[in-house]
Design a protein that fits this description.
74% helix, 308 residues, mainly alpha, 10 helices
Amino acid sequence: NSNSNSNTNSDGAKKKPAASAASQYQAMLLGGVASMMAVCCTHPLDLLKVQLQTNKAAKVGVLQAVRTILRDDGVSGFYRGLSASLLRQMLYSTTRFAAYDVIKGKMDVRDASPLWQKMAAAMSAGCIGGIVGNPADVANVRMQSDMRLAPEKRRGYRHAFHALGRMRREEGLRSWYSGLVPNVGRAMLVTAGQLASYDEFKYLLLNRTGGVFKDNMATHFTASFLAGLLATMMSQPVDVIKTRLMSAPVGEYSGGLDCLTRTVRAEGPLALMKGFVPSFTRLGPHTVLTFMFLEQLRTLHKRLTAAA
């Protein structure tokens, strides 16, 4: 019959499992694609965040940082390091989204499962993603903070691969993993704050509001906005330490604890919240755009898969 024919090739062998597996692998890539689309919109905000976090001056505001970028590099300065940001999302976000789906499957985590199970799966996925994406993250931070340095000290990386190549030649492979521990810690917290809480907020909105919310863009926006706020609050102190470690020359700090101690001693504990406004201004919209794009990509993928 026609159904039997659709599941076999010319040799009579079944092909549906292979097609199903391919569809699953494709679906796992959607998180990375959505994140890359989002970062194209939010990169200037990420650059501002890095500028504020790496500036050791006591009082540097967002407007002052904007004026400095415009004065030194013009409008194009807001997209310095975009290639590294895209590479980071391709490695980091693709890995963590895919790992989150796999780990949830292994743990049998469902929409109605307790939040701690989703958090555990997300933090495990964030750990893997943080390790995979660390080299691109270092390149990203260095390219974005380069303009803050004196002209004679600027590294002048042209793009992400040029940055990674020079770092390997001039400083060794160790430089690719500067700030690895706080970066992995941040990745775990952000992934828990974004992926796990998005699933939880979406489930609560759909099932605990008496039918007010439907599975539509309004619900996706609300759940992702709340997830972005929570992710920023959870990750900000670790993000400051990670950024400073990655932007510093190799050997300036002995590790994350040394950077934390010296930062608090020199600038006070509030230094750990430096850049919170641009961090949320960046991570909030990035989270919203990522999940809005992701939901649309999932819908499109389902339609294309069904049509095939």
